[in-house]
Amino acid sequence: MTGGPTGGPTGGLTGRLGGRLAFGGDYNPEQWDESVWKEDDLLMRWAHVNLATVGVFSWALLEPEEGRYDFGWLDAHLDRLHANGVAVDLATPTASPPPWFTLAHPDAMPVTDTGVRLTHGSRDTYCLAAPTYRQAALRIATALAERYGEHPAVAMWHVHNEYATVCWCDHAAAAFRTWLRARHGTLDAVNEAWGTAFWSQRYGSWDEILPPRATQWHRNPGLALDYRRFWSDEALAAYREQRDAIRAHTAPDRPVTTNLMLPGYQTLDLWSFGREVDVVGIDHYPCGPGLDAAADIAFGADRARSFGGGKPWLLVEQGANTVYTADRTLPKEPGDILRHSLAHIAHGSDGALFFQWRQSKAGAEVWHSAMVPHAGPDSRIFREVADTGAVVARLGEVTGSVVRAQAAVLHDSDCWWALDGQGLPSADLDYHGELRRAHRALWDAGITADFAHPADPGLSRYRLLVAPALYLLSDAAAESLRAWVQTGGTLLVQHFAGVVDPDHQARLGGYPAEPLREALGVRVEEFRPLAAGASLRLSDGSTSTTWSESLRLTAPAEAFATYTEGMLADQPALTRNRYGAGTAWYASTRLDDAAYGALVARVAAGAEVHPELPLPRGVEAVRRHAPDGTASWLFLLNHTASPVAVRTEGHDLLTARPLPAAGLTLPPGGTAILRQG
Amino acid sequence: MTGGPTGGPTGGLTGRLGGRLAFGGDYNPEQWDESVWKEDDLLMRWAHVNLATVGVFSWALLEPEEGRYDFGWLDAHLDRLHANGVAVDLATPTASPPPWFTLAHPDAMPVTDTGVRLTHGSRDTYCLAAPTYRQAALRIATALAERYGEHPAVAMWHVHNEYATVCWCDHAAAAFRTWLRARHGTLDAVNEAWGTAFWSQRYGSWDEILPPRATQWHRNPGLALDYRRFWSDEALAAYREQRDAIRAHTAPDRPVTTNLMLPGYQTLDLWSFGREVDVVGIDHYPCGPGLDAAADIAFGADRARSFGGGKPWLLVEQGANTVYTADRTLPKEPGDILRHSLAHIAHGSDGALFFQWRQSKAGAEVWHSAMVPHAGPDSRIFREVADTGAVVARLGEVTGSVVRAQAAVLHDSDCWWALDGQGLPSADLDYHGELRRAHRALWDAGITADFAHPADPGLSRYRLLVAPALYLLSDAAAESLRAWVQTGGTLLVQHFAGVVDPDHQARLGGYPAEPLREALGVRVEEFRPLAAGASLRLSDGSTSTTWSESLRLTAPAEAFATYTEGMLADQPALTRNRYGAGTAWYASTRLDDAAYGALVARVAAGAEVHPELPLPRGVEAVRRHAPDGTASWLFLLNHTASPVAVRTEGHDLLTARPLPAAGLTLPPGGTAILRQG
Amino acid sequence: MTGGPTGGPTGGLTGRLGGRLAFGGDYNPEQWDESVWKEDDLLMRWAHVNLATVGVFSWALLEPEEGRYDFGWLDAHLDRLHANGVAVDLATPTASPPPWFTLAHPDAMPVTDTGVRLTHGSRDTYCLAAPTYRQAALRIATALAERYGEHPAVAMWHVHNEYATVCWCDHAAAAFRTWLRARHGTLDAVNEAWGTAFWSQRYGSWDEILPPRATQWHRNPGLALDYRRFWSDEALAAYREQRDAIRAHTAPDRPVTTNLMLPGYQTLDLWSFGREVDVVGIDHYPCGPGLDAAADIAFGADRARSFGGGKPWLLVEQGANTVYTADRTLPKEPGDILRHSLAHIAHGSDGALFFQWRQSKAGAEVWHSAMVPHAGPDSRIFREVADTGAVVARLGEVTGSVVRAQAAVLHDSDCWWALDGQGLPSADLDYHGELRRAHRALWDAGITADFAHPADPGLSRYRLLVAPALYLLSDAAAESLRAWVQTGGTLLVQHFAGVVDPDHQARLGGYPAEPLREALGVRVEEFRPLAAGASLRLSDGSTSTTWSESLRLTAPAEAFATYTEGMLADQPALTRNRYGAGTAWYASTRLDDAAYGALVARVAAGAEVHPELPLPRGVEAVRRHAPDGTASWLFLLNHTASPVAVRTEGHDLLTARPLPAAGLTLPPGGTAILRQG
Prior knowledge:
The structure is a homotrimer of 677-residue chains.
Chain A: H1 13-16, E1 22-27, H2 34-46, E2 51-54, H3 59-62, H4 72-83, E3 87-91, H5 99-104, H6 131-148, E4 154-158, H7 170-184, H8 187-194, H9 221-247, E5 256-257, E6 259-261, H10 270-276, E7 281-283, H11 290-307, E8 313-317, E9 323-324, E10 329-330, H12 336-346, E11 349-354, H13 380-393, E12 402-403, E13 407-410, H14 413-419, H15 431-444, E14 449-452, E15 464-467, H16 475-486, E16 490-494, H17 516-520, E17 522-527, E18 535-537, E19 543-545, E20 549-553, E21 558-562, E22 572-579, E23 582-587, E24 590-591, H18 593-606, E25 619-625, E26 632-638, E27 644-646, E28 651-652, E29 657-658, E30 664-666, E31 671-676
Parallel strand pairs in A: 1-2, 1-11, 2-3, 3-4, 4-5, 6-7, 7-8, 8-11, 13-14, 13-15, 15-16, 16-23
Antiparallel strand pairs in A: 9-10, 12-25, 17-20, 18-19, 19-24, 21-22, 22-23, 25-26, 26-31, 27-30, 28-29, 28-31
Helix pairs in contact in A: 6-9, 7-9, 11-15, 12-13, 15-18
């Protein structure tokens, strides 16, 4: 549980912030003139801003032509911010190459799988595998590190921005072949892994291997999966290159990180990134209003914490007034800015940053909300931002404290990528949706949950694991899960699990992979997907959709609900197996939300995993613990529209008083942070 | 109010038609053989055809190989038509380059934004910015003008056909840069206008500027908007080039024009085209059946009239039996051919033409209806066409008369293009839909309406202006609207108005742009888009969707309806401000159709803008005025399925008798044209 | 009724199988190791497998680099299979060129209509018109024929796999021009056929003609239609090339064929293929569950039989547990494997094969079901497969027997392709949907139906013809249908029929094409498509959608139902004409399913076309006849969930006993095969 090279919980950041939580956001002063900068200084103080992310989109100004740098303007802003008490999260601008880059290096522009070469005019338009791009990115990052590595304003380094662009060009093809040699060793091993004996796909030379470009019919799923892995690793290598260059020029208490996109992006293996960043930083914009936003924040925050191994992490971007839905941006409700910020902090963030400080007056994000909206500081949004800053400023003592969970949801990028493929038996196999639903069921039950990788060697820290979409499973992970159940764990596995190995090769002789099958006491013989919109009724009265399976049980596994219709009538649908000291549950069909929630609650209760406090649904109680065990802080967040009485005790950080004996009543939307023994 | 170089109301056309309204259509005799031509002559006389558009698709026959012309066949057709009493609207064939053109000039084929170069095999496949295309087009147009400039059959010139093809190729890029230099002067000014400081988009040389081609993420909205402007100007330049070449060889009483596509196409700024054509000509196919078709005709016709500054204009194409819907072509009902033709004439067209005379027996438009259908003259369609021709032939006295309106709907291509962009707060911001809805509300209320550009210096001719989607607004137009209200105008502005300037830069300090804000007495602080499908109830019982806003009012502005829910409860939703001698209304949410119609009617009544006659919805009364004020003609069009009694007087042009004192009764679908004092 | 070069009903196949029906499937042993091969031998015997399709995807192993062959592994498998009593359907592997092929011949990769050149990584990625592809394909096919032409295991040759890839590249363009010269003779004739006088499309040289690549607007329908014809002919030429090479090296009692895709693929003219294969082979996967699957099997099987001129044919691929729907694969119900196999045999298949023997453990079809599923032989699926094999093994005596039908549905690829174009009056004109619906109406009525081409010279073998979507009709076919009605046939023609000729040129003077118009006693003057979702009520109480027409009747044609609304009120909707000794019915609107079914049943009854037995809907009785008339076999298939008593007699092949006098009762899902006199 150490944070980066210097060992502080957030890699030294909170030390540089004087033990305070971070509060602030992206700051792009190059969009504005001096009169605005002066107002910015004033308003930042007013709003208790202590950290600004600078330089994310500054490449074109920092290097106006190839090899010629202009740092003067940035010097001035860093000095000004520093003088104003605002530390800087200094970004390398490599996500947005300037227009000159395209003309100088057209081969470094990304190419789609249908062969369209993109061009500049937006952002994020580059091929990570193009040598000229990588060299140019490393040069500007190094130049920044050399110049600002010891600048007193700089408290943190922000490499790149939201790695997400994927490319299918010839540079990518070459890099993919190199990666494949490293992963598989020989071409024979590649052929074996991908099953190229089928469909006449056997590769006779490395040069024949291409990215998964447009082809006539389904692609080879092994190749497609390896390409996802390769690309994530390529992005990670690009990150590490810059990180190492920065580390060579900066003090070790200035953590280096990048801002990861959550929650629905699936380009990167975030477990790998979590191991390479000094602090996990995420961008997180709720994708629904109301209670859905609160659950979404917990979902993203719990993932961020888990990717970093449980350490405090940092919310690098949120929207002041931004709730994304499919085709529009909804506004936040009064109080959301504070409560959403505190919700992130409750789940382990050592601060709350926004994108961006001041709403752009031009450009593609002119309608993206900001801490200071177009209307200016005389606005509800800025007032709530400033109020939030004031509250966050009172919470410095929680920095570095950690959240502990007894339950975890299994989460594996390989599964996600493999299920995002072609030729699957049903269009309703939605990795991300199932992941969310499992977490939401625990959240609805008031249970704080981590995410864990199926091959995590430290599963013993959990009492309960939920595996909502465990499509792909390695032999080692199957054995690890089995052993964990045997020694007392409670595992809930859901349909279509453990059916392929890491090469996307099917498990034979019945699913899921042994020895998980042994722990579950279940052998799946046949999948029976349901028609779109069709549903089934089970013997316990619950209903389900999407999927069913023909199972055979091994004693002492028992069905606690059976199918009632068709070929599967009276056959087991939901099963439970006492295995060693533990219990393994299996759901062979996709229960409707209510039944699924009830099942998860029942499994959790069986595992003796309970909420911090018994509270109504939508009222969160999340605890952060001092690493040395001397104190803990209970965050109470009422996301509902009703007041709720909470019987507890402690020192209220917001009122700076002890709670009365009767506890407290959280008003609708209200929050409290209590220091407890 | 003069029409082209010779000053006649329709540029001399009706003079050449002997003072008659134009009746006829596109005539493509090259599809047929001599026996058909003979039948054509007979049937055209029978149907009172006096104008035929010839040559639109004839390039491949007129110039069968590059530089070799064959005019003989066209000579014969022009002579034949002339002998038969049919004047010719002679088209330049430049919308359809022949196949040889592609092989000779592959670089002149258009390229999509994803880099797909299109090829021939259809029509409209060319890049307007390609020099070789422009030269070839000018050559054939000049050759036609030289040969037929003084041909007695030629009464009008029809440049090109439906300018609509857009291109993203390198020729387009070069022309775009030239255009940008002219608009912005310096590269610094371009960078400033587009806000390229954001997202690292600063351009260091002109060569770096590209059309808005495929890129990774949202495009710069300033660039995207300028590209729309550029392309419209490029099309206009192409038009002017041909027009000037023709004018050099033809008598000044032969107007030159092009056929503009209406109503949903948004490639061109039709205000600019209106200034450069001798007569506004439009193609207009109703996009719905029944009353929707009638309202759509009024919508298109009122726009056509407005683009030409109020002069008579010409319906160049309509469909005999064609009502377009999303995925099929519906037939017209009996009587529609006549009533639709008269509806266009009522709104100011000096004629009614069709595409096309005879239904093609082959090719891509084999199922496009025509005046003479596949079934031949023994058909309902041809009989109705011929009956319509006979009626139109009786209306010669209305030629040159004009329609006058007291109300106008504000309409600006810049707004349309800007709202057709990426990154907007809601997918439901539909410029064209709102434009239609505003016009429809006036039409339903029986009010004849113009369209007006927000920066029109002559707004004083109106008592009422409705601004349904005034997203983009220049400083000058904001001031012009303010001043117009101050001197007595009544203005209705709808949500999300005046929020960006002509560079697509946001207005700061609250919306909309000053000094319109002053006239409205409203400062918008925050937008609050609604979820898809969500609706709000206002204090007056009306409902609304899509959008809401947080407003602050300046006295004497008052709320006449407030929000009732959420953060905005009891806050103003609909406001009215007495300002100087005028009134400015603001609707900060999108009212449902019924409430919106009621609001528009209320605002109109407040402005003392009334219908010609109080008639049921769907029964039109539109008046054309002799320019010298000596007479007017009242067109009565019953688009409903019920008879309607009309108490009025005058000379009935169809019966050639004075109306009886009791007035007349229009049967369902019936029409009357009355000459009045 | 001879089958290929040797005259046996299935081209000698069943002779080589010892007079047994074929049972087995695709066998791809290169995916597995020796231990699996040993199990395969055992399980194939257990399941009564006697035919395995080998080599479909083996190119990369057979020719690991260009020109170097490795046949040793295939020798071993063929010897092993032969030793195990399994005959081989030996495939040429040309549908899946190996990766080396792409690198050696990039110009032979297919190009989409938007210019995207596809690459390997899937299957079916090649341009049939590329000379290097054709040469490579012919080389490997010849090498296989030379080596295995006399191999005792080989009972049949399987050229390629599912010809379906279409290409728009320059090779395709060159081949298209050659094809056009052959079809049209001169460029003038091409111009005339395509009506290039419209839209300035006249071609001045052959080089100007291109495939229907991306263009700005609708394509020329004549060109589009000719390209479909060309491509089908190109595929047929590719097939014939390989077939002829094989025939040069194999005994004439080993039939050569290819597996055609059914039922919704429309790339090929299957009538042409039917004339060139020794045995029609089809791949057929039901596209719906339950009764829809049964009707779909009949639909596909009746088409397969018809394409081969009524001869026995062969089901080359079915899915053991595969029911395709739009976005998922549904499982089969218990008993379906047997009943579906027997349903194909009932309709004339001399066997039932599956794709594939053993479910792949890797690759793009890892979730495609197989005879031996992942779970292994201890599974419902394999047990049912083996049971089915045992039943099929008892039916050897039906080999070579044929199905005879008194009714046929007219079916023409030209119609299909022409209706799959741009610019049609309604999006609801669905050739394939109407074809299915016509067949289903007959199937629901218990009537065994063929399909017949409109220009089939042998229509006199039918009493009833249904023409559900006869959009395109040649003069000759129109005359042939007229004459057939005159001599006693009963014809039902549906809306929008006979309206274009084979060049896609419209029929003038009223539709449909003469002299069909004479036989129907109907002249269609005007089409009146309906709005999406709209419906009409007819005078007989039935309802209809999609389409209506304005008709004029010629005595003695009479309306037996009229329209009731709008312009067509009281005008004829459904008509009947006594013509010569026959009757011609016309439906000018698209009746709802129930009314359409009733109409078809009424027309069939009028034609004295009756089911084999009066049975409930969903219970099939289909008869196969010994060619010499000495016996027949009645297949009874209860596709419903209710038992049904059948009063009939005969020798029951499954029980090997005569039926009792009371007949038999088929349980739900039950089947019986009775030999009758």
